[in-house]
Amino acid sequence: MSGDERTARRRFLELTSAAMAGAVARELTPAAAARASASSTTAWDIRAFGAKGDGRTLDTTAINRAIEAAARSGGGVVSFPAGSYLSYSIRLNSNVTLSLGPGASIVAADPPSPGSAGYDPAEPNAWDMYQDFGHSHWHNSLIWGENIENFSILGPGRIWGKGLSRGGGDGVLPPGVGNKAISLKNCHNVTLRDFSVLHGGHFAILATGVDNLTIDNLLIDTNRDAIDVDCCRNVRISNCSVNSPWDDGICLKNSYGLGWARPTEHVTVSNCYVTGGYEEGTLLDGTYKHLPPDSPAARNGRIKLGTESNGGFRNIAISNCVIDDCRGIALESVDGALLEDVSISNITMRDIVDVPLFLRLGSRMRGPAGTTVGELRRVNISNLVASNCASRQASIITGIPGHCIEDVRLSNIIVLHRGGGTKEDAMMQPPEIENVYPEPDRFGPMPSHAFFIRHVKNISMRDVEVKYASNDLRPAMRLDDVHGADFTHLQAAHAPDVPTFVLNNVENFNLYQSPPLADTQIDRAQQKTL
């Protein structure tokens, strides 16, 4: 083909595309959408369906027409060229990929005036009393899908939840208001990859009952939860960077939102960075502006299993993650869940605002009547380094009376905290508070500076070192109601005349190769210090 022929052909295609876009802009009917995309069964440009991408015109109808047309043809790629596409609810469909090109942004429109249409209404849910409003509804979102399969959202573009609400407690939002950037329910074979989310509302990503889910290489800088995986199976979360000062970063849950207790299982979280320490937006723009000391943000961040914990957590691996300027890692079963077979390895933490590790079995029991207390067992935590941690509390591993955490192994761990605990702190008796929302700070100051271990069966620590930056007058370890405790190569700083261990109602205690303490075996200790 000659150069002139190529030029003529390119001009013909440009004119044809312009003509189709004009027709769609005038009609915006399904027939027009089908004609507009007749030239390609795999690529569907939303501009051909009337989208403006100017950041002022509502493009909701054009976007949804393109998705519907791709789905009717059997599937395809709906492409978003560079531009800002203002929208209310976008409805995903099976076998359709949303491709956000370089410079493309989907922007959540501001809530409408009263009486006007806006985001899709929150659908009814007969079980909404067992979890927060945000966890109980999916349709009131910027992008949502339900009962669909084989779809993706791909970058490198952006989703900006500009007009989304973050919600307030468990308050019901008015009709037309959206509160999630991406919301998925009862789906499978889903990929979310290579895009960014700014200001995602209550959840940047909420996936409930989603199986075979891949979340990879996302940048999320948001005003509440970033990634929530709820009642899902076979999930891979990898290579993500999250700044979420106001709520959790990467959070696995199993609520009662589906109407039954479905476990979250077969999940890996790897090669991720979570923080709560930066002003919103400054992770994405690369300026990394630290929150000022007087900021009301909780600097939450963190990786957590719970709090919603009806169906259970099984077969979970968390590895090669960096946690910075936020809370640490929390494993929580408080609503009857069986939390078991969890491996956490190769973790680095800095500037932790409460405790590096929080393992909690409780009895909040936010679920149907008759639900019994769950179990937390078989947890391995290894190769963890934490520095400049807050010192008010130690790492906490606690069940409740009559319900012990079981079979916990910790190895190759180094923790440096700021110190400063007092003799008065060492006398504290932390409350059980077994039926409340589980957070470390609710217990008050801990009577030990390294680990507080209560209502536990079979715990072992090997090659664990805990140090402080300034003198701390609390013992390193406090064990209450513990049955089976083995410590090997333990190094725990302690002030002169302050014991390393305080044992209360402890059975089968063993300490080896941990100078200056001598090897010690105790069958039973009602009250003893070492």
Descriptive report:
With 530 residues, this protein is mostly beta strands. The protein has 5 helices and 32 strands. The protein has helices at 3-27, 30-36, 60-72, 133-136, 423-426, and strands spanning 43-45, 54-58, 76-80, 83-87, 90-91, 96-100, 104-108, 143-146, 149-154, 158-160, 180-193, 196-198, 203-216, 219-221, 225-230, 233-238, 241-243, 248-254, 264-270, 273-275, 301-309, 313-324, 329-333, 338-350, 357-361, 375-389, 395-398, 405-419, 451-470, 477-492, 501-512, 520-529. It has a 14-stranded parallel barrel. Helix 5 (423-426) links the parallel strand 28 (405-419) and strand 29. Helix 1 (3-27) runs antiparallel to helix 2. It is elongated and about 80 Å long. The model is unreliable at 1-29 and 31-41 (pLDDT under 50).
CA radius of gyration: 26 Å
**End-to-end CA span:** 89 Å
Residue share in β-strands = over 45%
**What strand line-up does the widest sheet have?**
13-15-18-21-23-25-27-29-28-26-24-22-19-16
The strand count comes to 32
Mean of the pLDDT scores? Answer: 92
Question: What is the overall number of helices?
Answer: 5
Helices and strands: which structural class? mainly beta
Q: Name the helicity range.
A: 10-25%
How would you describe the shape? Answer: elongated
Largest sheet: 14 strands, parallel, barrel
